[in-house]
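for ur thesis appendix - DUF3243 domain-containing protein. copy paste whatever u need, i formatted it the way the template wanted (i think)
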Amino acid sequence: MSVLDNFEQWKDFLADRLQQAQQQGLNQQVIADVAYQIGDYLAKQVDPKNSEERLLADLWNVADEQEQHAIANMMIKLVQQK
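the 3d part is after this line
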C-alpha cells in the first residue's frame, strides 16, 4: 500500500518529512521550494488515488505559478498542525 492511497497517511508522511527537514536545519524557503517541486511532480506524473488528491491536482492544474506556490505553502501549514 502506497502513502498516496490514503490522504491521512499522505499527510502523516508529509508531516514526518517536514519535521526531518526542519531538524536538519533547512530553512522555510527551502522547504517551501521543495514542497512546490513535489506538488508539481505529483500533479504532472502521478494519478490521484483519492478524491482529496484529485481536488489538489485539479486546483494545481488551473493555478498559475504563484497560486501553485500558495497551494504548496498551505499543504505545509496543513501538516504542521498535526
